[in-house]
Structures are given as structure tokens and as C-alpha cells.
Design brief:
- The structure is a homodimer of 431-residue chains.
- The two termini of chain A are 41 Å apart.
- With 431 residues, chain A is of the alpha+beta class.
- In chain A, strands 1, 2, 3, 16, 17, 18 and 19 form a seven-stranded antiparallel beta sheet that branches.
- Chain A folds into three domains: 194 residues, no CATH class; 123 residues, Glutamate-cysteine ligase, N-terminal domain (Rossmann fold, 3-Layer(aba) Sandwich), CATH 3.40.50; 94 residues.
- The N terminus of chain A is likely disordered.
- Chain A contains ten helices and 19 strands.
- Helices cover 32% and strands 23% of the residues of chain A.
- In chain A, a hairpin with a 4-residue loop joins strand 2 and strand 3.
- The interface between A and B is medium-sized, with 35 and 35 residues.
């Protein structure tokens, strides 16, 4: 399938594509070694049920910046590859190891976000076409009965209350064999789903109330080191450096020295790497809530001064994340420029890769137009235009150049799977 | 992906589509029950590595007429769904249960058939893109060194001699972990691959030297009965009736009475069924070599007289099959009209469904311009135009009519998998 434009893949606006082309060439040339390595890794560390990974491609570096184990956004994928998701879902359920016919998806509770509800409708329909009976079982306390919400796409989301019945959860008289979380449990594990006897994936221990980005990226560091050794490259080309602080209170200005020291050290480390590879960009870092998602509690800084001089509004923004969770731990991550742009306005485009089990099933670009980024600067879950990958990520063609769409998407699929593998090891560590 | 014509799916030329639409509707309505049933079946009887199934669709009946466990024709599938095959191949290899990085495909030995060589090139490339190192290891005794055969598509087939090294087979110094047969072993298992320590699939016991169509269709009968019970339909709608004879010599006219009696009884049984369902067609049977492929040793008969009055040429044609194998056993199968046609000349079109592991990955129509709807389209030297299925077979849409392309292909995928399941049980019975 093609989109209606002549140029369905974002352009690079930087001349610094040499290292990227080299990396992509190395990945293409070593494809069977890479896949062999992945196969051996999945035998040791089974992949999570599903995941999405946000990437940044600066031309000198391709790196994951966030790994979501409760992915939304399935509505942004290219429907031409639905079959790939359907087949992968069948495999993922098969890997649960027990018969499954009925599935309840437990969604996020923000029922007014139509984009999210479109995601739910697509995920439900993919699972149905994979041959399962599926219901959406909401945790929302005010939802008392089944509610059908019509959606702009023409689909609808049929939300019903999830109810507890002994050691099982049900939706009406629908008794699932398997409960699939599409809720990242930012506020902890609800009593409703605690200790249920049904299979429950991903494990609630992987919810954001328990998970730390810094832990994930520690695992990623190990994965990136091994993968870089396989290719004989500097792991920095695929790994964002980071530091973390464990006891921050933005409002009370506690933990400020840890933050300042780490920002300074990280900026120095980036400067050093930029010099090593002649990168002509100004180093910056991202400061993020260590537990959290939805782009809340996030800021960028090009200097230590920027984290010293936080005004009250910035402090407030940094101090809470989704569902009012307080931020006390932060990760300071190497900022990776986005040098892919899209359209006449040169909107910034960031790739997101989707995986089901260990299969890459597609992805899309978050295209941030100027308008939406300025209007929604402080908004949680900022507005973006999705641009589905026009090709899937598992059909590389070594006969074409490393920057051919098929091959660039293959590279994205490889980096996405490295983050997936980090999450798999992370899951094992808490199991 | 669409083909260049407005009407990419063959037309029905019969008014007898009522029973078919009913069957397709029932299959759509019971999709999750059907998929649940398949899941439980694959847990008991693992699917063969790959298979293709020839179907006939008469409008009153959709039935498999041949199941090939060494499928060629991968070059006829829609390249838009390569990713589906790639993902399914990864899964099929994973199900072998031991690490595999290097694969040798053992092809048929007819190296001058460019269509077949295109199939090999596509199969090899799919496996390579799935992340394996792949070589073609030929059994052809006269092939002494690696030979690269350029193909009309622009691809090429790189054939090299398969050599024995102790209890292993190799291609040059390429030592595979897994040997994939794409050769149906019509002449028996070559000594070269006997008792090798490498994994070998499909099992040589499933080669045509050991396999009988009548055994396969006995297993299919059982599968069709169970599936029909699930849907509450007459199994006849999906099952071609058959008889078989064990000691025929067409040249010496031995076994003639068995053949005549079975043709007569089968024609009577078909007449009975046609009356029951008001089918306004003339019953016919197909007489085929019970062991064999490639449409050799095949004839159709509308009356007993036609098998009594075989002339010398017909007897010769019936008496041998591929690689000069003598026919002594025959299967007499209910003839199922092909009422799908294609193009302005109303060429007859018969669907072929492809499966890898238990996944349906696509299919194509064999479109033949000169034969009638009751003749076998897979005749020796027969030229057909392949017409790839424009959609894949695993994305049904209950909101559309049962004859919508997505849904018709889903039905074909279901019937194809019923034959696959029969082959899975057949494999277990010889294991």
C-alpha cells in the first residue's frame, strides 16, 4: 500500500547520514547473523506479549528512547499489514502455553480520548480476526453498564465494567481465559485484578507503578553492548547514554545537586562523543520521570543552567505524571536529535515500532507539525499526525541501498527488537 | 495490492451459489469457534512444515482435491504478502525445536522447468529474509558443480550438488542444521539423505513413493465429518467422495472390474447427492494414480463406459506417473465442477491455498483458457496463468457479504487448513 504522496518516508534534513548509512549497511550485511542472535535470545528470554518502542534517528545514531509494554496506537499502523498482526497475535497467544478462546482487554480509563478508543477498537478487531472472542473490560469505577462509544472512523468501542467473581474477572457473563492489559497501571495494580487465576499479560509488575526507565535502559545497555560486539561497532550508535537520580522533589527543590551533577556529566560525555564522531550539533539531555509515560514530566536541557533555573510552572510540570503520580525519581537521558522531517512544513517525524511477541508487525511516524507542537506544548500526550510505515519491517532487500524504505524499516525493526529484548530480560528479573 | 484489472477475483458462472453462500455465511458466523477448534487440533497434531492444497469451488461445494506436502509455486503468490510468509517461516523453524541457522533446500531434479526454478528462487529468498543462510542442494547426479541459472524474473537459481559427509549432507562446505525437502520423492528416498543426523522435513515417509491419496482422503473424511458437526452441515459440502482400487494394471487390463464397480457406485452416490441438493449438473468422477502428483495418470469419466473403452493412448497415459513410476493403485474421486471463471474468454480458474506451519500465507488461481470445467487443470505440461490472490486469507470481515473477496479467501483458507489437518494426522500415523 502506498500513501497518496510521492514521498511517503520522511526526509533527512542533516548531512550527517554517513554513520547511519554505515550502520544500516552493517545491519543488512549481517542480517542472518543478527536474526540468529535474536533467535537464541528469544529462546533464553521470551518476548513480552506486545510492545511499542519510540526511536530517534539523528543520522549519526538510531536509538530507542521509550519502551511501552502496554502499547496504544494500533490504529496508526498500516491496515495493509493487518494479516501480519493477526498471525503474530495467534502466535503470541499460542506461546501462553494454555488454551485460550476468550480474551478480555483491560484498557486505560481515559474514555474521552477518541484516539485511544480507536486503538482499542483496532486491537479488539485484530484479536477477533485472529479467531478469539474479545471484550473490553473497563476499570473505570463510574462505568456501571455496557457503553458503546461511536468513533470517527466508523468503528465503535464497546466498554463494559470488569467485575470480580471469586478469583476470576469477568465482563457480564463473559468469562475470559486470558486478560490482556492495555493499561500501564500507573497507579499500581487495582485490587480487581490482583491474584486472579486467569492468565494476565503483561505482568502487573511491569506497570509503571513498579517499573523504572533507568532499569529498562540498564538492561538495554547490556543488550546494546552485546549487539554492538556482534557487529563490531561502538554501542553508542544505538544506545542513548543516561544517568538517574533517586530522590528528587521538584517543588521542594530537593535532590537538586544530584540532578545538576548528572546533567553536567552527561552533557560532557555527549560532547566527548560528538567530538569523537565530528557531530556538529549542540549536546542536550532529556530529563524524564523515571516511572511514567505519556510524555508527562519531561523536559530538555542544553545546559546545567536550564535545570537550575526552573520556574514554578516548569517545576509543577515536572513534579507529576499520569494520574497525578508524584515524580521523585528521574532519568537524565542523552538527547538524540530527530533529523527526519515530513511534508512542506518540515515537521519533525519520530518512528514508533510495534511488536507482538518477538515479531515486528509495523510502525508509524509521529509527525509533529508546528501548529500542534506549539498549541499543545504542555499537554499530556501531545498531538501528532500519525504516518503509517508504508512497508513492514521484516522484508529487507540487500540489493537495494541501506536507505531504501524496506531497509530503513528493517533497521528500525532491529533496534525496536533490541529494546524488546531489554524488556524481556527486565521481565525475567522481576518474575 | 491490486492487479491491473477491475475484477481481480474470478466470477461464478453458475447460479448454484446458494449452498456456497450459506456455507460461507456459516463459516464467517462461527469464525471464533472454528479457530478455537483449529487451535485445539494443532496442539494434538502439529502441522506439516508447509503445504499447498488444490481446491475446487462449484458453487454447491468447496472441496480439496489434492494436498501437496512439497509445494512448488511460491513464485505465484502475491509479493505484497511476503512478510506473512517470512513470519510464518520463522515460526515453522522455531517449531522444529532445535536451533537452526543454516538451511539446505533439496529441490526437484527437473532443472529445465523455469517456473519451478522461479519457485525455488522465491522460497530461498523468503527463508533468507526470515534470517537464515540458505543453499539449494540438488540430487541431480549429472550436476557436478555449482550452476547459476538466470531466470526470466531477473532472479537466478544457484544449484549445487548435495554431498554426503558421514551422517550429514552438505553443499560444498555449507553444513546445514536443517534440510527442507521441496522434492516429493516420487522415486523413493535417495540413499544420499537416508538416516542423516540433521533435521529433515517433511519426513521422507510422506514422499509420493510412500503416500497414497486414498489414505490422505480417509483422514480428510474424518476431519470433514468433525468440522461439519461443528457447523451443523452435511460434510458433503466440503468433502469429495472417493473409492479406491489396489491392484490395477491399465496395460494388461487387470483390476478392471474393481475400477468399473467403483466408478459406477460413485456416480450413483453423486447422483443421489445432486438430487438431494437439486444440483443441475452431470455427475462425473476423476480417476487418478493413488500415489503421485503433477496431474499425471489422471482422467475424468462421466460414465462407466468411459473407463471400459480406454484406448491404448489413454491406457499408456494412465499407467505411469512422474519419473516413470508405474500406476497400480488408483483413487476414484467425486468430480467437483470448477465454476469460477476468469477474463473475457471465461477461462476456468481453480484456487490453490498455501500454508506454512498452520498459517495460511496466501494462494493463487490456476487460470486455464482451454479446458472445460470438469477436466483436471493440473495436467502434465499444462500451461496455466497464475493469478495471485489479491488479499490474504486470514482477514475475514463479517460486516461484508460472504462472497466479498476477503471472506471467500478466508473460506478457502479454512478448507485448505482442513486438508492440512488431514495431512498432520496422516503424518502422525506414519511417524
Amino acid at each position: 500500500m502506498s500513501t497518496s504522496t510521492d514521498s511517503p518516508v520522511p526526509h533527512f534534513t542533516t548531512a550527517l547520514t554517513g554513520p547511519l548509512l554505515l550502520l544500516e549497511r552493517q545491519i543488512l550485511d549481517r542480517q542472518s547473523a543478527i536474526e540468529s542472535w535474536f533467535r537464541s535470545q528469544w529462546r533464553r528470554s521470551p518476548a513480552p506479549f506486545y510492545a511499542s518502542v519510540d526511536l530517534r534517528n539523528s543520522g549519526y545514531k538510531v536509538a530507542p528512547v521509550d519502551t511501552n509494554l502496554f502499547p496504544a496506537g494500533f490504529n496508526n499502523l498500516n491496515p495493509a499489514f493487518d494479516a501480519l498482526s493477526i498471525q503474530a497475535l495467534q502466535q503470541a497467544v499460542e506461546h501462553l502455553g494454555a488454551p485460550v478462546d476468550r480474551i478480555v482487554i483491560v484498557p486505560e480509563s481515559h474514555t474521552r480520548n477518541l484516539f485511544y478508543l480507536e486503538n482499542l477498537a483496532v486491537l479488539q478487531r485484530l484479536l477477533e480476526r485472529a479467531g478469539f472472542a474479545v471484550r473490553l473490560g473497563s476499570l473505570l469505577p463510574e462505568l456501571k453498564e455496557e457503553t458503546v462509544i461511536p468513533l470517527p472512523s466508523g468503528a465503535s468501542a464497546r466498554l463494559a465494567p470488569l467485575v470480580r467473581n471469586g478469583r476470576r474477572v469477568m465482563v457480564g457473563d463473559f468469562d475470559p481465559d486470558f486478560v490482556l492489559l492495555n493499561n500501564d497501571l500507573s497507579s499500581g495494580t487495582p485490587a480487581l485484578i490482583e491474584d486472579i487465576e486467569q492468565m494476565l499479560r503483561p505482568a502487573p509488575k511491569l506497570g509503571w507503578a513498579n517499573r523504572l526507565k533507568s532499569v529498562h535502559f540498564s538492561f538495554y545497555q547490556g543488550v546494546a553492548r552485546e549487539f554492538a560486539a556482534l557487529l563490531g561497532i561502538d554501542p553508542w550508535f544505538i544506545d542513548p547514554m543516561f544517568r538517574n537520580c533517586g530522590a528528587i522533589d521538584f517543588m521542594k527543590r530537593e535532590g537538586q545537586s544530584c540532578l545538576e551533577r548528572n546533567v553536567e556529566e552527561l552533557l560532557e560525555a555527549i560532547t566527548h562523543k560528538y567530538a569523537e564522531y565530528s557531530v556538529q550539533c549542540r549536546p542536550f539531555v532529556m530529563v524524564k520521570a523515571d516511572a511514567g509515560t505519556y510524555g508527562m514530566g519531561v523536559m530538555s536541557a542544553h545546559s546545567v543552567a536550564e535545570v537550575v533555573e526552573l520556574n514554578r510552572k516548569q517545576r509543577t510540570k515536572m513534579s507529576t505524571t499520569k494520574e497525578g503520580q508524584k515524580v521523585s525519581k528521574v532519568i537524565i537521558q542523552e538527547g538524540v536529535y530527530t533529523h527526519e522531517t515530513w511534508g512542506e512544513g518540515n515537521a519533525v517525524a519520530e518512528p514508533v515500532v510495534y511488536m507482538i511477541d518477538h515479531n515486528v508487525v509495523g510502525g508509524f511516524y509521529r509527525v509533529h507539525t508546528e501548529r500542534s507542537s506549539s498549541e499543545n506544548l504542555n499537554a499530556p500526550g501531545m498531538r501528532f499526525e500519525p504516518l503509517a510505515f508504508e512497508e513492514c519491517c521484516i522484508t529487507p532487500d540487500p540489493a537495494q541501498g541501506p536507505d531504501a524504505h524496506l531497509n530503513r524499516f528493517y533497521t528500525y525493526g532491529v533496534i525496536g527488537r533490541l529494546a524488546l529484548l531489554a524488556a524481556a530480560r527486565e521481565s525475567q528479573s522481576v518474575a
